[in-house]
Specification:
This protein has helices spanning about 15-30, 45-60, 70-85, 100-110, 125-135, 155-160, 180-195, 250-265, 270-285, 285-305, 335-345, 370-385; strands at about 35, 95, 115-120, 135-145, 150, 165-170, 200, 230-235, 245-250, 320-325, 345-350, 350, 365. With about 400 residues, it is α/β, with parallel strands linked by helices. The chain starts with 14 loop residues before the first helix and ends with a helix.
Length: about 400
Amino acid sequence: MDTFSDRIANIEAEGAYAVMAKAQALEKMGRDIIHMEIGQPDFETFELIREAGKKAIDEGFTKYNPSAGYADLREEIASQARVDGHSVSYENVVVGPGAKPGIVFPLLALLHSGDEVLYPDPGFPTYRTAIELAHGIPVPVPLVEKNSFAFDMERLEALISPKTRLCIINSPSNPTGGIARLEDLRQLAELACKHDFWIMSDEIYSRLVYDGAFPTSIGTLENMADRTITVNGFSKTYAMTGWRLGYAIMPVNLAEKVSLLLMHAVGCTAGFTQKAGIVALKDCEAEIADVVDEYRKRRDLISKGLNAIAGFYCQKPEGAFYAFPNVKEIGLSSKELASRLLEEAGVACLAGTDFGANGEGYLRFTYATSRREIRKALERIAEFVSEL
């Protein structure tokens, strides 16, 4: 009675949650730990959103609702997507409890056993897990540091086979902070059309970009609307991690199938959360601008500070809130270095290998924490490295 199905044979905990648990255990022992391991904004959910959620509860939006989400939220998402260049209606939008259902359920709907899925390595660990849950075959595609952590497009093209069903992209990227280049997206779009595969574009960090960057959504390119799933959500931009609100934009026939999967898996997304989401989309531009400005200051602080540490080299991230320094000169594996930084220096971060084999030689730090904490962490890291 202790055997489990093949589909969960390789499931592991996300590195961020595992490290957070270890860090919290050390804190219970009296240690002072600086948390730079989990991608959670340190800002409170914007006041307008909080008040909208409370009002929605008082107004009774606490009951079952359509599995695809309320029509008014879906229409507001579609409206903003049209401004960004997407040709969509509310029928293309499926709302879920977080963005992860927008990753997992389309893969369940599209993949046949043995289909191959290209995905970024290093990349968000849920991609590989979701592919395997859907009985697909994960095919990692390296991200190249010297190209601002863009895909190695020659390698990607070489990995395409008759079994390729889908390619996942993430821009801005977790863990690297890199933004996909327009020329690469155009080439990928051409390859998708030529070889007839889908694109899943994870754009959860699309509003958190710096220095005038404006990421292109591949679903807006010619001939791509009918073969693209665009995944997004409210957790990162609006500091709504615990509200569990996300969405995906996709062709209507796929949206209908994903809605059925949602219906049978989770039923629906909390109604009061959805009503708060409408306010987030319509009324919080000023708050987003303030948050992005603060993240930019933190980015500049951490990238400059890491580059001042012997053996560290950190490209300045273009988006998201992660720094991904190259630490190969230190001479320790990523896992060992991350573990020792936690246990000996009191700085919780992640090994690059938590995001795939190509993450060896890198660490990931989130700068979704205060500048004061970032300065303390940099001092501790520098002291630790000097004593190696």
